[in-house]
Structures are given as structure tokens and as C-alpha cells.
Design a protein that fits this description.
The complex is a heterodimer of chains A (305) and B (251).
Chain A lengths: L5 E3 L2 E3 L3 E3 L8 H4 L9 E3 L16 E4 L2 E4 L8 H14 L3 E6 L4 H11 L5 E5 L16 H13 L6 E4 L7 H11 L3 E4 L3 E3 L2 E2 L4 E2 L6 E4 L4 H14 L4 E4 L5 H10 L3 E4 L2 H4 L3 H15 L18
Parallel strand pairs in A: 3-4, 3-16, 4-7, 7-8, 8-9, 9-10, 10-15, 15-16
Antiparallel strand pairs in A: 1-2, 5-6, 6-14, 11-14, 12-13
Chain B lengths: L1 E14 L2 E7 L11 E4 L9 E4 L2 E3 L2 E7 L3 H7 L6 E8 L11 E7 L3 H11 L4 E8 L8 H4 L4 E6 L6 E2 L2 H10 L6 E5 L2 H14 L3 E4 L15 E3 L5 E3 L6 E3 L6
Parallel strand pairs in B: 8-9, 8-12, 9-10, 10-11, 12-13
Antiparallel strand pairs in B: 1-2, 1-7, 2-6, 3-4, 3-7, 5-6, 13-16, 14-15
Classes of the chains: A alpha/beta (305), B alpha/beta (251).
Bound molecules: flavin-adenine dinucleotide (FAD), flavin mononucleotide and FE2/S2 (inorganic) cluster.
Chain lengths: 305, 251
């Protein structure tokens, strides 16, 4: 038995496998299939201060090796989470990561202040449009990445802050450094890549929102490259994700520099994906004489060119 | 709910473009009429295909599916012995109250298949009238099942089998003759359900409809599959449905 536990910003996780936001709700449904307590952490559905109804349907489409989604942050609001889900999710023993979003800097400040000290970690989804500066997502420009990180961090006295980076940017290394400058304790990446899928009979996009976020197995090489670049750019820990389907995929991310990983779309293909990945990680470490899974982080050796 | 490793025992065409696949689950599942399964096609398709459970017999479960896109195309070419993951049973299913004796089934298109499961569940205890609409003669299927109902009226869009009308018109015609059910259970294309909703509201009849929506997880976690409710909220088709009180959903 390898030691799968990791320490992330002072928080101990049983293992480095975390459910990715938006694919796992608050864990209750998956707990009908297996004990969610065995998962390293759960990043909740993206929450906002007020409940949101999200986008019209259809919200999902499939393309070879990937899916596209545009749920539009439907969520019951942070108060509902605190009243109905938090105690239960904590009681499973998993690490509770609150994924949060907002339209203004004040939204981010308020929601972080409300959650401070109540959850294990907070993950900022900064891929949302900033209504006060013309609707461009907070996560695009390094300046706004830094500003939103700083605003959130100001509201947090105890809970560590993860900033989740968007891949739809000019330089992932620049944005990673911007989050670190803003005071992030950790960064996670990648969020979905913007895409489109067309129903050629109707000559219309399949998804009602026209565009959607691309995720799943096919995005993995892009995600691994970005995690590598981000990990090179910062000193804070990195959580890697994007297309992870099996333990070997997770190990690629760890070697590229990630301290932990998140699994999203694979939960749809196989609802037991995460327990299988955790077991596979242990088996791989045992087979390769790796005593601590944390020893794998950043062990990639580039080819000499 | 369980992710069965299911073995195909039979996979054959039953009408134009429609196939029936039977799986051996290795154990007897506990299924309510109107529930569905989420079928994993293969590793290259990241999303499973939600299909209504048409019938169960011992360890076997049968799904009837129309060939639409890549996934169902692949499924139809899979022979006996092929093993697939099938997550089931999912969703709430149809429920008939003890006080409701006369049940009307109104179905069209692929919506006829969940109604076969209702018929099988209630045919011995309820008085069932089935109003089933098909595109044309070639699309007709499930007749041997619906024939077990006390009344079975089949119609087609082009009049090539039964009268030329849709299932809602067939039901409305029978209502006019004074044949009033205690409850209406329906599944079919949205325009059909919309027409039915207008009719049952006028007639003040209780009605439950089974909805279709594109899904991610199929178990209620991702909020991909929602429908609009009359109270302004959104419900998950996979977990809160697929069966809803017609009064409570916007179609
Ligand atoms: C609860 C429920 C029960 C259903 N029962 C039946 C049934 O008994 N028989 C039957 O023939 N069909 C049924 N359907 C529709 C069936 O799910 C789709 O026809 C099927 O998924 C199409 O897959 P494909 O690979 O052929 O198409 P593709 O176009 O390759 O599918 C791409 C993606 O879109 C999804 N999708 C496409 N059309 C639909 C649709 N109409 N509804 C939901 N998802 C869709 C697919 O699941 C897949 O994820 C049901 C749908 C739901 C939600
Ligand atoms: C249906 C769906 C909903 C998502 N919702 C959120 C969300 O609310 N907040 C967020 O930060 N990321 C969200 N994501 C992005 C994932 O958390 C993850 O970053 C992305 O899907 C890449 O990982 P994967 O390839 O393993 O799915 C969502 C993804 C999917 C597929
Ligand atoms: S498909 Fe995920 S909530 Fe219905």
C-alpha cells in the first residue's frame, strides 16, 4: 500500500483525486453508488450568492472524444448549500471545496466572506463574465485575474484559496503568476475550452447557448501542457485536470507538476471512475516502488533537444 | 440503481429503423414502469444513451431504440454476447394511485416504449386504454403488447395503419364518446405532449408525462437535463423525472 495522502495548503487529503466542479453536484447522487468519503475531495457545483436558473436546454453535446456543455451556473445559491448540503458533505469525510462564481468583484468578496472558515478550501471560478467591465471574463487578462484573486483573498481569514484558471487565454504562465501575485494559495486548471458543435440537418448549434465548454478525454494533452507551464511559473501548488479518465492519465498530470488532480467528464462515462483511479494510483505506485504519491509531483524530465 | 455489466442476448430489428436489445443482467433488477437505463456504448462515446426500460423478465431487460446518430448506429451492430455497462434503473417512473382504475396511455414515436412497461405492470389490476400513434405502417411495433390492453387504438400520420390522425386526436375522439379515464399517462414528441396538456387541462383530467432531454450524468448531479416548471423553477429530467405531472411542467 502506497501512501496516497497529500497535503494541500495545510489541508490533508486522503488521496490526490478530487471531483471536478459541476460534474458531481454536492456528492449526494454519487454517494448512492459508493461512499463519497473515499474520494480525496469534492469541488462543489459552482455557486453564486443568489440562486441561478442557468441556460436553456439543450445544455450538452458529444463530439469525438469530448463533450461540450453550457449549464450556465444553475445552482441553488450559497445559503442553500450552507443549510442543506455542507454538513452532510463534511460528514462523509471528504475534503469540501466550495467552487464559487460572481459577476462583480463584490460578489466574489461577499461569497468568500460567507464561506470563510466553513469549508476546507474555496475554488474561484473566474471564467464568468465581469458585468462591470464590459462582460469579458475575469479569467482572461492577467490584470483582472490578479484583481479578482486579491478581492477574494481579502475576505478570507482562514480558508485556503484556489484560483481556477481558464485555458482560453494568451499565456497560461502569465495568468498563473497573476493569481500567485494576487495571493492565491493554490491554482487549478484547466477549466473548459470554448467550442461549438453543429447539427448539420438543422444548420444550428446543438447547444442552446450556441457555444459550450469542451471537456473530456480529448482535451488531455492540451491540459497536461498547460499544467506543466503553470507549474513551472509559480511556487504555489497546482491542481491539474482536463480529460482524466484513468490512473495513468492522473499520473501524467502529477509528473507535469500537479500536487492533486480533478476528474470531471469521466464521472459521466463511468460513475465509478474516481474510485477506480484511486485504486489504480495505488497499484501503479506499488508496482513502481513509489512510497508516497506526492513523490511523483513534478518528476517529469524533458527530452534534451 | 446499479451499473450492471450486461450481456446482450438478443438484438434485432422490430420496425423501420427500430431495434430491440435484450440484456442479461446476471440478477433480477427491481424496476418501476417508466424508469430508464443509461447505456454505455463504448469508450469512444463519453456520454451514455438514456433509453426507457421497455420490459423486464427475470434477469433480462429489453430496450427498444430508434437509430438516430452514431451511438445507436453502433448499438444496432452489436451481437449476442457483447457486454456493455448499463446504469439502471434511473428516474422516478409512472405511478398509478389505487383510486385510479381507468388508465389511458397516450404515446407517439419512441414514447410508446415506456408505455409498454406501464401496460405490463398494470394490465392485470387496471382497465387500460392505449392510444398509440406511429409515423406510418412501417413504424408500427409493440402491437402484441398493446393488444393485451382492454382497448387499443393505433393510428398513423399517413393513414397507412389505422385512422389517419395522431395519438392525441385518437384519445380526444374517444373522450368525446364519453370514455373518460381516471388518469392519463403519456410519452412522445414535445408537440404531441403540448397538445395533450391543453386537452387534459380543458377536460380537467390528471395527466403524467414522461419527458426527454439530453443528459450528462443521468443521476441528478450535473443539472444538464433540466425542464421548466410552472412554478418558475427548473427540475432534473433524470432524477426528479422523467415523469412529471403535466400541470407542473412548461412544454
Ligand atoms: C429518459 C429518456 C428515455 C428515452 N427512451 C428512449 C427509448 O425508449 N427509445 C428510443 O429510441 N429513444 C429513447 N430516448 C432518446 C434517446 O436517448 C436518443 O435517441 C439517443 O440518445 C440518441 O443517441 P445516438 O447515439 O443515436 O445519437 P447522437 O446524436 O450520436 O447522440 C449524441 C448525444 O446526444 C444525446 N441525444 C441525442 N438525441 C437525444 C434525445 N432525443 N434525447 C436524449 N438525448 C439525446 C445522446 O444521448 C448523446 O449523448 C430517450 C431519452 C430519454 C432522455
Ligand atoms: C457539465 C459540466 C459542468 C461544469 N460546471 C463547472 C462549474 O460550475 N464551475 C467550474 O469551475 N467548472 C465547471 N466545469 C468544468 C470542470 O470542473 C473541469 O474543469 C473541466 O470539465 C475539465 O475536466 P474534465 O475533462 O475532467 O471534465 C464543468 C464541466 C462540466 C462537464
Ligand atoms: S443528467 Fe445530470 S442532472 Fe440529469
Amino acid at each position: 500500500m502506497a501512501n496516497l495522502s497529500i497535503n494541500l495548503c495545510g489541508i490533508t487529503l486522503k488521496n490526490p483525486v478530487i471531483a471536478a466542479s459541476g460534474t458531481y453536484g454536492f456528492g449526494r447522487e454519487f454517494n448512492e453508488l459508493y461512499d463519497v468519503g473515499q474520494i480525496g475531495g469534492v469541488s462543489t457545483k459552482g455557486m453564486t450568492l443568489e440562486p441561478r436558473l442557468g441556460n436553456p436546454v439543450p445544455r450538452i453535446a458529444e463530439s469525438r472524444g469530448v463533450i461540450l456543455n453550457a449549464v450556465g451556473l444553475q445552482n441553488p445559491g450559497v445559503e442553500h448549500f450552507l443549510a442543506e448540503d455542507l454538513e452532510w458533505l463534511k460528514s462523509t469525510g471528504t475534503c469540501v471545496i466550495a467552487n464559487v462564481a460572481g459577476k462583480t468583484l463584490e460578489d466574489y468578496e461577499k461569497i468568500c466572506a460567507r464561506l470563510d472558515g466553513l469549508v476546507d478550501m474555496i475554488e474561484l471560478n473566474i471564467s464568468c463574465p465581469n458585468v462591470k467591465s464590459g462582460g469579458m471574463a475575469f479569467g482572461i487578462k492577467p490584470e483582472s485575474v490578479e484583481a479578482v484573486t486579491r478581492a477574494a483573498k481579502k475576505s478570507l481569514k482562514t480558508t485556503p484559496l484556489i484560483v481556477k484558471l481558464s485555458p482560453n487565454v494568451e499565456s497560461i504562465a502569465e495568468n498563473a503568476r497573476a493569481a500567485e501575485r494576487g495571493g492565491a494559495d493554490c491554482i487549478s486548471l484547466i477549466n473548459t475550452l470554448t467550442g461549438m458543435a453543429i447539427d448539420i440537418e438543422r444548420r444550428k448549434p446543438i447547444i442552446a447557448n450556441n457555444t459550450g465548454g469542451v471537456s473530456g478525454a480529448g482535451i488531455k494533452p492540451i491540459a497536461v501542457r498547460m499544467v506543466y507551464e503553470a507549474a513551472q511559473a509559480v511556487k504555489i501548488p497546482v491542481i491539474g485536470m482536463g480529460g482524466i479518465t484513468c490512473a495513468e492519465d492522473a499520473i501524467e498530470f502529477l509528473m507535469a507538476g500537479a500536487a492533486a488532480v480533478q476528474v470531471g467528464t469521466a464521472n459521466f462515462t463511468d460513475p465509478y471512475a474516481m474510485p477506480k483511479i484511486i485504486k489504480g494510483l495505488n497499484d501503479w505506485c506499488d508496482k513502481h516502488g513509489v512510497a508516497n504519491v506526492s513523490d511523483l509531483t513534478g518528476t517529469l524530465q524533458l527530452n534534451q533537444r | 440503481m446499479k451499473d450492471y455489466i450486461a450481456t446482450i442476448t438478443k438484438n434485432e430489428q422490430i420496425a423501420d429503423n427500430i431495434f430491440a436489445v435484450t440484456f442479461d443482467l446476471g440478477e433480477t433488477p427491481c424496476v418501476r414502469a417508466g424508469q430508464f437505463g443509461n447505456i454505455s456504448i463504448d469508450g469512444t462515446h463519453l456520454l451514455r444513451r438514456p433509453i426507457a426500460i421497455c420490459k423486464t423478465e427475470g434477469n433480462e431487460v429489453t430496450f427498444c431504440y430508434q437509430i438516430k446518430g452514431l451511438g445507436t448506429q453502433k448499438l444496432k451492430n452489436m451481437g449476442a454476447g457483447t457486454r456493455l455497462n448499463v446504469l439502471m434503473p434511473l428516474g422516478n417512473g409512472f405511478y398509478v394511485e389505487d383510486t385510479e382504475q381507468k388508465v389511458a396511455l397516450v404515446g407517439g414515436g419512441v414514447g410508446v416504449f415506456p408505455l409498454i412497461s406501464v401496460l405490463r405492470a398494470y394490465k392485470d389490476t387496471k382497465e387500460i386504454a392505449a392510444y398509440i400513434g406511429y409515423r406510418n405502417r412501417g413504424a408500427v411495433c409493440g402491437v402484441e403488447e398493446f393488444a393485451k390492453a382492454q382497448k387499443f387504438i393505433a393510428v398513423t400520420d399517413d393513414g397507412s395503419y389505422g385512422a389517419q390522425m395522431n395519438a392525441v386526436q385518437a384519445f380526444a375522439a374517444d373522450l368525446e364518446k364519453g370514455n373518460r379515464p381516471d388518469v392519463v399517462l403519456a410519452c412522445g414528441p414535445t408537440p404531441m405532449l403540448r397538445a395533450l396538456k391543453a386537452l387534459v387541462e380543458k377536460e380537467n383530467l390528471p395527466c403524467y408525462v414522461s419527458l426527454e432531454e439530453r443528459m450528462g450524468c443521468g443521476i441528478g448531479a450535473c443539472l444538464v437535463c433540466v425542464c421548466d416548471q410552472t412554478n418558475g423553477q427548473r427540475a432534473r429530467v433524470c432524477k426528479d423525472g422523467p415523469v412529471f405531472n403535466a400541470k407542473e411542467v412548461v412544454l
